[in-house]
């Protein structure tokens, strides 16, 4: 059984450095505000666990994920460049035809690409 689901999820994990929790939280609010108006975003939010945080995000397809990366890319680079947080793991999940759109644009972040092969979307 194959899938006709085109959804792409991006699953980044970060660690907050040097007690910068409050400063990082202000970045998280900015990410949410930037993303709120993206028509292809299915869901978006941040979970925290001590000095770690995870962005829980899903997109209708690879094109919507690319649009998101273009939208928040400068803010992400600012956050990572500030030394306040470090990206510790990055996974991208979706069907191969959608992941193919993301492999080159995301290469610099060195993600793991997980190919969705079986399943459905209601």
Keywords:
single chain; about 120 residues; alpha+beta; Alpha-Beta Plaits; five-stranded mixed sheet; 5 strands; about 35% strand; globular
Would you kindly provide a written description of the structure presented here, covering whatever features stand out?
With about 120 residues, this protein is α+β, with helices and mostly antiparallel strands. It has a single domain (about 10-115), classed as Alpha-Beta Plaits (2-Layer Sandwich), CATH 3.30.70.100. Helix content is about 40%, strand content about 35%. The chain has three helices and five strands; from the N terminus they run E-H-E-E-H-E-H-E. The model has no long low-confidence stretch (mean pLDDT about 95).
Record the SSE blueprint:
Layout: E1 8-16, H1 21-35, E2 41-49, E3 52-59, H2 62-82, E4 85-94, H3 96-106, E5 112-115
Parallel strand pairs: 4-5
Antiparallel strand pairs: 1-3, 1-4, 2-3
Brief overview, please?
This protein is an alpha+beta fold and 122 residues long. It is built from 3 helices and 5 strands, in the order βαββαβαβ. The chain has a single domain, classed as Alpha-Beta Plaits.
CATH topology: Alpha-Beta Plaits
Per CATH, the class reads Alpha Beta
**CA gyration radius, whole angstroms:** 15 Å
Which CATH architecture is right?
2-Layer Sandwich
